[in-house]
Amino acid sequence: MTGFTEADLRALAGPRSFERGQGYLDAVTALEVGDGWVTATVHGTDAYEVELSLDEPEGLAGECDCPHGLDGNFCKHLVALGLTALARSESLPGQRTGARNRAQDLDAWLAALSRDELLALVREQIAEDRQVRRRLELRAASARGDLAEVRSRMRELFDVGRFARYGYVDYADARAYGEQAAQAVSAIAALTATGRAADAISLSREAMRLLSEVQDAIDDSDGHLGRVGAALAEAHLDACRVARPDPDETARWLVGHVLGDLDDLTAIDPLDYADVLGEQGLVTARELALEAWRGHRTGWAEKYLMEHLAKAAGDVDAVIAVHAADLARDGSTHLVIARELDTAGRPGDALRWAERGIDEASDTTTLAIGLVDYLCDRYTRSDRLPDAVALRRAHLAARRSLAAYQQLRTAALAADCWEAERGEALALLRADTAQRKRGWHGGPVLIDALLDDKDIDAAWQDATATGADDRQWLTLADEVRPIRPADALRVYRRLAGPLEKQTGNAVHEQLTRLLLSMRDCHRLLGTPDDFTAHLATVRAGQKRKRNLMRLLDRNGL
Fold this sequence. Notes:
The protein is built from 27 helices and 4 strands. It has helices at residues 6-21, 67-70, 76-87, 92-112, 115-128, 130-143, 147-158, 171-193, 197-214, 224-243, 247-259, 274-295, 300-312, 316-324, 332-343, 347-360, 369-381, 385-399, 402-414, 418-434, 445-452, 456-466, 470-480, 485-499, 505-525, 528-541, 546-554; strands spanning 28-34, 37-43, 47-55, 59-64. It has a 4-stranded antiparallel beta sheet with strand order 1-2-3-4. Strand 3 and strand 4 form a beta hairpin. Helix 7 (147-158) runs antiparallel to helix 8 (171-193). The longest helix is centred in the first third of the chain and has 23 residues, at 171-193. The two termini are 49 Å apart.
């Protein structure tokens, strides 16, 4: 239980609850440790029962019966328990051993009791704990095959009434509801174990319906209902494997379940039932899926099921038909089809579908980049380099981005035609700059392209003539500083001016970096005294900003 840190506790609790929890370390008593959990009593306004658990994949979680904890919060008492566990990490293994020994001692004591003594003990617990009584009543009904009683109890267990406040089960009560519903699942599984698998099939299907009906009334942030649904699906599958129900009826139920509203929590996969369905049932399932898809070709569930079953059957053409019936306008579906055909060993068909995606795209500015990349890769591998260049050229014309420019350059260099292509590409970007079109980061794409080409003189000239943003000017100044320190210095001083009027550590770091660059410029210019005077003016004007002063001191400024 030491697989967490103080940082984990702080992140879950928040700074206020974490700080308050530090004051409750002396209030932690009766600490017990098990495999993946630790419990204790924490004394505050009342004595609260607190538990931390460390599970995969959920991570660290906690429960406390204080008012704040019951609302689903990671409270100060949980923080106190977590900090105590971390402080006692060396002794926890021994305490875990003690807990195991106590459990073994209890088991040995129970084993030594006579039948009458055990009955008396159980009856005592039934009288004191209503939940224990209800759980055992359900087990008894299941054992004697009283299906009507099991069904009645099951419906009670799936009822949210005792947990709902104002008709809704909030986060704090969701776990308790999940534990209650899990009792019904255990009773259903017990039917299969005692020779009534057919009844288990019927009840598990009804339970799935009941669970689906209440899921919108429960805050299931921690996935308790999902675990109940998964257990129900497992119980249903186990029962089917024992009872061997009619394959066609089972196929109809599975397809209806997946296409209906009940599958959100159970995630049933018809292919898991292959041994139950046999070839006959699988054929029926595929036929039903095909019929449903034909009636609603754009439905997500219909498309998923049809594609899933077709793939399992190796029917590539059916998979392609599913995608082809609902093609996206950006060509992304064409790419999916092309990759399916590649996997099936049909590269010629794959290429035709990819090219069709380019031709049928309704708006080249939104064309799926993955499709362009796929086609260019195919063209390059088949030595169709001019086609790859043409596609990259068209992509740049549509996107006008640095990435598109870089991709065109790569393709043109491979085709040995970059010099000509570069001129046309830069002319296109200059036209954009003249129209004041900006790139992803705000500045002209032209400047980014020239910088990426390491054509610093051209980039400086275009930036001076048509403009650039501060990010680009800073990059230009850094590039030219060794050979044109005076030009770089003017840029640094212009960028530093607005920062002197702002606050914040990030601003202070930017200003410090600019001052260091200015110092280097003055060194190259042979005017260090000018920088000393400028720095003195800056420090005098910024002296109230203590973090900035410390940062300047650390950097020798």
